[in-house]
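FAQ

Q: What does a record look like?
A: Structure on top, sequence underneath. For example:
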């Protein structure tokens, strides 16, 4: 039986959106998803109200969306960041439209999913201080940063109940094969050769269950409004070690290190300081990289075929 809690998840058909929606259904919440595409078969959930439209177009929200929600989580955004106009419109205009739409309503919490890229050239471990970066090295980072600044201004002027989460690298079951972990698993379980960079980059990977658990805690906490929080595992690894670990656990795959050059805007060391989130709520990431990879590999063997 559903309780009266209603949550809206924009980008609800994506990887994180799917897992968040699934958790909310487990909590017996009423879940509405907004996205520009219907959910893939492996990420379609019975019980979710799927709405298909583009939030970067203001008239769509006015004509197709109710204002009667307790919580709003903004995960929407164009995935291919090489298209500058679409990236800016989806990640900034969409965020701005959504916040304005719910500005004078009774929502308890607006969660904005930001990015570690918002820190620009700040050295790792990156931390949430009061001085916000002026500009990043990418159009995606700039769009997310503009969204952060706009939302914080609404909080300051109108007491808008927003909390911003700057995510590091999230992975887990049912993720699309366009990120480093699923890409490597996909090739490794088929025992294929695959090109990759030299793998010197240092990253923080957080398993999806750990992310969803902290998101639910933040959603329910009304003391964290107007704040930015880094979200990661607190553990780092090099991309090369990660790829070799996946191949070992998958018992296959032949990574061709050094075949792909680094992007011009590539950040070599990217990982967070997590003291702020740990002081604010009782939470820490619990799933080790080894365990998270094993779970993800099992899922990919079940759900993806060559």
């Amino acid at each position: 039986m559903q309780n009266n809690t209603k949550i809206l998840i924009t980008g609800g058909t994506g990887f994180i959106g799917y897992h968040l929606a699934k958790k909310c259904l487990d909590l017996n919440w009423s879940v509405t998803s907004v996205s520009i595409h219907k959910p893939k078969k492996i990420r379609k959930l019975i019980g979710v109200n799927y709405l298909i439209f583009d939030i970067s177009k203001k008239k769509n929200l006015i004509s197709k969306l109710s204002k009667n929600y307790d919580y709003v989580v903004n995960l929407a955004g164009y995935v291919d960041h090489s298209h500058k106009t679409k990236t800016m419109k989806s990640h900034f205009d969409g965020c701005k439209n959504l916040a304005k739409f719910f500005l004078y309503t009774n929502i308890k919490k607006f969660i904005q999913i930001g990015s570690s890229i918002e820190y620009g050239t700040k050295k790792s471990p990156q931390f949430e201080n009061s001085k916000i970066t002026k500009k990043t090295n990418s159009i995606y980072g700039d769009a997310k940063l503009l969204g952060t600044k706009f939302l914080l201004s609404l909080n300051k002027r109108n007491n808008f109940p927003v909390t911003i989460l700057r995510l590091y690298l999230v992975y887990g079951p049912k993720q699309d094969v366009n990120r480093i972990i699923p890409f490597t698993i996909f090739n490794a379980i088929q025992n294929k050769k695959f090109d990759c960079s030299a793998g010197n980059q240092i990253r923080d990977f957080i398993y999806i269950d750990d992310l969803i658990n902290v998101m639910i805690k933040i959603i329910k906490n009304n003391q964290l409004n107007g704040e930015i929080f880094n979200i990661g595992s607190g553990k780092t690894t090099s991309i090369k070690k990660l790829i070799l670990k996946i191949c070992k656990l998958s018992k296959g795959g032949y990574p061709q290190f050094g075949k792909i050059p680094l992007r011009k805007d590539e950040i070599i060391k990217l990982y967070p300081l997590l003291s702020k989130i740990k002081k604010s709520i009782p939470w820490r990431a619990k799933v080790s990289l080894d365990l998270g990879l094993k779970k993800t590999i099992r899922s990919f063997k079940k759900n993806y075929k060559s």
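Q: Is there anything notable about this one?
A: The longest helix spans residues 139-158.
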